[in-house]
Design brief:
It is a single chain. The protein has 670 residues and is mainly alpha-helical. The protein folds into 5 domains: 131 residues, Roll (Diaminopimelate Epimerase, Chain A, domain 1); 27 residues; 112 residues, Up-down Bundle (Substrate Binding Domain Of Dnak, Chain:A, Domain 2); 107 residues, no CATH class; 136 residues, Butyryl-CoA Dehydrogenase, subunit A, domain 3. The protein is built from 20 helices and 7 strands. Strands 2-3-5-6-7 form a 5-stranded mixed β-sheet, sandwiched between helices. A two-stranded parallel sheet has the order 1-4. Helix 12 packs antiparallel against helix 13, helix 13 runs antiparallel to helix 14 and helix 14 packs across helix 16. The longest helix has 56 residues. The two termini are 54 Å apart. The relative contact order is 0.08.
């Protein structure tokens, strides 16, 4: 036993000796000759994007940079954290220090970290290898910072990095090309604007009186012009009312008071608006001082009042013209009216019998809209007959104006009488159509019930089936014999159809989803087993360099797989989700483990390149063999090699010593 421990101790001391011998020869002298700088161990990031331990940024610069990086996070879903220190310490390697900060602060795939040692002139841009920005692009962004860093323009370096991530999809050449295109477009737009302005100025010189712009011209004109237009509007509207009053007098004499009563009312309202406008003009002209705002507002009101009066008067012009045309052709219009009256009279005569026929079949509620139509139609026809007789007598007396108005009134009476009578026939057609639709819907609902019987019972389905049967029974009762209500039946059947269709569709969709989940589940479980096996094997054979992150993902992947197996029969959909999650976690475990190996091989035990020595000692450490010996002998202590390396209390290996799991990046000196 003593011999065995002697060998183990000798191996460990030999490895430690190799680490010391492999260190750069000039390291000790440099430490003695270099000027002392404050050393900073890996830091804890604060709530801001920028952490200035070196004190190289002013408060305004820090605020500006935090705002810019916050905007980057919102627009690109990428977070860039920045740390300024004097020198890197524990470890003093820029890559290891930066990745250690990223690991300690839990930075993920969407998060990047730029660390700058301002005194020792080192920097490193750390990125997750599985992040959205390729490492080649991260390297480009890193190199773009050198000039700013050398100039000690620390804020500019951060802005350059943020700009690099903003344009992460384009190379420098692409950005230059885009900039050139943008400049060309701007030049073309400026040229077009100059050309348009020159043409407008030329047109203004040729034609000084420009047309009104689109929209309300009153909002843009000056106070002086507004006052001028208000005065013109008053004069124009006053003249129009005077002319309309004269025309109304002639029309009244020609057509009578009854025919022109509406026109009289329109002229009176226009006159009232004009009087109000004159009152405002008087306020503008009196000796009481007015503010500029009051004067402009009153001028606007005057114009609006005059416009409203003119519009109403203009609408009467067409009505007067129609009445005058009717006066000129009164005999022909009366003959046409009498022919229309006979057609309407036939429909009005048939209306009571038609309504009675409907009443013997349908419920009174279904006929509510036409119950009074026969009486109203007869009344309208009687009114038309009265005015037809008046028109005939007035034509015989030579009163063509009064006759024209009587003919117009009789035309309206005949039209309404015919509409009231026809509404009964229209309703009969509508009720028959509703009955046909109800029959088709009953057949459709019977099929729905048959289909629902083949589905597994559920509270929702049972309720929908019961409601459908109730609606069908009521529909058959309401659709037979007398007192039918086709429209109410159709509404009830439509509601029942909507309910059972939605319920059946939901159940069938759930069944289809379950069946699809079962079909995909077996394949997904097989894939999950393979991914978990790959991750576990990789971690086991390289456990000397694998930290907690990869191991945690692998363990969680196995747990998700166990849940998938447990739910595969009872809930295939849930099982599928667990299996897919297991695959994702296993792949993430493999990626993290691979990143740990890459970092270990490039900067772990004994310096760069010393991780896998020709003697095989590096492979022994990488595979966890030495750790297994110290923890009690190989595989007997656990599935992943027992303790997994030297304990942190012994001053040796820690999982985070190998470069931060799956993070890479770019940096150096400046």
């Amino acid at each position: 036993m003593r011999a065995r421990w002697a060998v183990v101790v000798g191996v460990v001391l030999g490895v430690l000796g190799m680490s010391v011998l492999a260190a750069p020869a000039g390291a000790a002298p440099l430490a003695e000759t270099a000027a002392p700088h404050p050393a900073t161990a890996p830091v804890t990031l604060g709530s801001d994007f920028v952490t200035d331990e070196a004190g190289v940024l002013s408060s305004s610069e820090a605020q500006e940079l935090n705002s810019q990086l916050d905007q980057l996070s919102r627009s690109q879903n990428i977070q860039l954290f920045v740390v300024f220190v004097d020198t890197f310490s524990d470890p003093d390697n820029s890559q290891l220090w930066t990745n250690q900060v990223a690991l300690d602060n839990g930075l993920g795939q969407q998060q990047y970290l730029l660390a700058v040692a301002t005194q020792s002139r080192q920097y490193y841009l750390s990125a997750d290898k599985a992040g959205p920005i390729p490492l080649s692009r991260v390297d480009q962004i890193s190199h773009s910072l050198v000039n700013d860093l050398r100039a000690k323009d620390w804020a500019a370096a951060v802005r350059t990095a943020a700009a690099g991530f903003e344009g992460s999809g384009s190379s420098g050449a692409d950005l230059g090309g885009i900039l050139l295109i943008v400049l060309c477009v701007i030049a073309i737009v400026v040229a077009i604007i100059v050309l348009v302005v020159m043409r407008r100025r030329a047109a203004a010189r040729v034609k000084p009186a420009a047309t009104d712009p689109v929209g309300d011209p009153l909002d843009a004109i000056s106070d002086e012009e507004l006052a001028r237009r208000a005065a013109l509007a008053l004069v124009h509207t006053d003249d129009a009312i005077t002319s309309s009053t004269e025309d109304l007098g002639f029309a009244t004499a020609q057509f009578g008071d009854a025919a022109t009563s509406t026109f009289t009312d329109v002229v009176a309202k226009a006159k009232a608006r004009l009087d109000e406008a004159f009152s405002l003009k008087q306020k503008l002209d009196d000796e009481i001082p007015d503010t500029d705002e009051q004067r402009r507002d009153w001028h606007l009101q005057i114009i609006r009042l005059c416009e409203a009066a003119d519009t109403a008067l203009d609408a009467n012009v067409a009505a007067f013209d129609e009445l005058r045309a009717l006066e000129q052709n009164a005999e022909q219009a009366l003959a046409q009216l009498q022919a229309h009256r006979e057609t309407a009279a036939a429909a009005v005569t048939a209306a009571p019998a038609a309504l009675q026929a409907l009443a013997t079949v349908y419920d009174p509620a279904a006929l509510q809209t036409v119950i009074g139509n026969p009486a109203e139609a007869a009344s309208r026809l009687e009114l038309a007959d009265t005015h037809i007789a008046e028109a005939t007598a007035q034509l015989a007396e030579g009163k063509r104006g009064e006759a024209a108005f009587a003919i117009r009134t009789a035309e309206e009476g005949v039209l309404q009488a015919n509409q009231l009578a026809q509404a009964i026939s229209t309703l009969q057609n509508d009720l028959s159509s509703a009955e046909e639709q109800a029959k088709a819907l009953i057949a459709d609902l019977e099929q729905d019930l048959a289909g629902a019987a083949a589905l597994p019972p559920s509270p929702d389905l049972n309720a929908a089936v019961a409601a459908t049967r109730t609606a069908l029974d009521q529909a058959r009762t309401d659709a037979s014999g007398t007192g039918r209500r086709p429209q109410a039946v159709l509404e009830s059947l439509t509601a029942a159809n909507t309910r059972i269709d939605s319920t059946v569709d939901a159940i069938r969709n759930a069944q289809q989803q379950t069946e699809r989940a079962r079909q995909v589940l077996e394949q997904t479980l097989t894939q999950a087993r393979a991914e978990i096996s790959t991750a576990n094997s990789y971690i086991t054979t390289h456990r000397g360099a694998i930290g907690a992150d990869a191991r945690t993902r692998a363990a969680q992947a196995s747990a998700e797989y166990d849940q998938a197996e447990a739910a595969r029969l009872a809930d295939p959909g849930s099982a599928l989700q667990h299996a897919q999650r297991a695959i994702a976690l296993a792949r993430e475990a493999t990626t993290l483990a691979s990143g740990s190996i890459d970092s270990w091989g490039s900067g772990g035990w004994g310096g760069p390149g010393a991780g896998r020595s020709s003697s095989g000692m590096g492979d022994a450490i990488l595979g966890g063999i030495i750790g297994g010996i110290l923890s009690g002998g190989g595989r007997s202590r656990g599935g992943w090699g027992g303790g997994g390396g030297f304990s942190s209390g012994g001053g040796g290996y820690r999982p985070s010593s190998f470069g931060g799991g799956g993070r890479g990046g770019s940096g150096g000196r400046f």
